[in-house]
Known about the structure:
The mean pLDDT is 84. It is built from two helices and no strands. The chain is elongated. The protein is 78% helix and 0% strand. It has one domain (2-46). The protein has helices at 2-20, 25-47. It is mostly helical.
Amino acid sequence: xxxxxxxxxxxxxxxxxxxxxxxxxxxxxxxxxxxxxxxxxxxxxxxxxxxxxx
Length: 54
């Protein structure tokens, strides 16, 4: 869970820097790719944790 939150924060920071700075659009693109990869990671992790019904 810590890795997920850290990657979300990094994606937001890169996105803000990429959107604010002129000529650093590649940082915005990297932030979007990182955010999508982080969401995919979270979905895979959450679907793998099915607890048996008692």
